[in-house]
Design a protein that fits this description.
Helix content: 10-25%
CATH superfamily of the largest domain: Nucleoside Triphosphate Pyrophosphohydrolase
Number of helices: 7
CATH architecture of the largest domain: Alpha-Beta Complex
Order of helices and strands: HEEEEEHEHHEEEEEEHEEEHH
CATH topology of the largest domain: Nucleoside Triphosphate Pyrophosphohydrolase
Oligomer: single chain
Number of strands: 15
């Protein structure tokens, strides 16, 4: 089965040079903070701060700057204003709205969306890693924000990524069909691919087989990797797969899933015509479904 490789999945393709070799140089970081063209991305509780619908680039503001990287030698920082009340955060940068990135991603250039997602994920981690998991003492920002260090035991903390698989499952034999499911709490006609977090001691292919078996009762044979997507909401990495079922029997768990069924290509094309799209607009699930439709 031939799939077209796409590098433009939302939140992928970040253009920044993260300058890993320079982050530990405090003098160099001070120079970047003083750079006349320095860019600052303000965030408030994981939301982008906008004015007239545009993402802001305010002058240096109060807060602990997190170095993101270099954009053609121009330093880019993020500042988290979450300690302020929303009205104070807006006033601090001259914004008129605090908006979730996923609400505006459709009108952003892919590179801009990738940078904002990176800023969002890193600031979220800093906000939630204030104390050492080893001894409980406060941690401090280090290496420009790439890490945090414990003030007492010296333990170094790195941002944690939570890998999750998302899978298009194809039925065995003819007619050609794929598996979509309706999750608990979803709208009556909202079907999606199966997904779940990778567990300890589990390879990615095993995670695919376990998730599909647990949720839909479908046994999986061949598993093939397709693509990955940055998903810092707050710390995910989505890994997309195509899998082939050994049987078309379905036995949903009744907990996470309330319905699952096989769809033919013709049925999905009819749904796309009726809805204007398939899958979430910023998610890899759309890519996996569309790739299968055109394979």
């Amino acid at each position: 089965m031939a799939y077209v490789v796409r590098s433009d999945l939302p939140y992928n393709g970040g253009p920044l040079d993260r300058a890993g070799r320079r982050r530990g140089d405090s003098a160099w970081l001070r120079d970047q903070l003083a750079h006349p063209e320095r860019r600052t991305i303000p965030l408030w509780r994981d939301r982008c701060l906008l004015r007239d619908g545009a993402v802001l680039n305010p002058p240096p503001i109060e807060g602990e700057p997190v170095f993101l990287g270099l954009d053609d030698h121009v330093p880019v920082f993020a500042v988290d204003l979450s300690a302020l009340a929303e009205s104070d955060a807006l006033a601090a940068v001259g914004a008129d709205a605090a908006v979730e990135l996923r609400r505006i991603v459709g009108r952003l250039a892919p590179a801009e969306a990738a940078v904002l997602a990176y800023a969002r994920g890193l600031c979220h981690w800093h906000r939630n890693q204030r104390y050492c998991g080893g001894c409980g003492a406060p941690t401090k920002l280090a290496d420009g924000g790439a890490t945090r260090r414990c003030a007492d035991c010296g333990r170094q903390h790195f941002p944690r990524i939570e890998p999750a698989i998302i899978t298009l499952v194809e039925a065995p034999g003819e007619p050609t069909r794929c598996l979509l499911a309706r999750h608990a709490g979803a709208a009556p006609d909202a079907y999606a691919l199966l997904a779940g977090f990778v567990e300890v001691g589990e390879c990615l292919e095993d995670a695919v087989r376990r998730e599909v078996a647990e949720e839909a009762g479908v046994a999986i044979g061949e598993v093939t990797y397709r693509a990955s997507q940055a998903w810092p909401f707050p710390a995910g990495l989505m890994l997309g797969f195509h899998a082939r079922a050994l049987s078309d029997a379905i036995d949903i768990d009744g907990d996470e899933l309330i319905q699952a069924r096989w769809f033919s290509r013709a049925e999905l094309l009819d749904r796309r015509r009726a809805r204007g799209h398939l899958g979430r607009p910023d998610s890899i699930d759309r890519y996996l479904i569309e790739s299968w439709l055109h394979a």
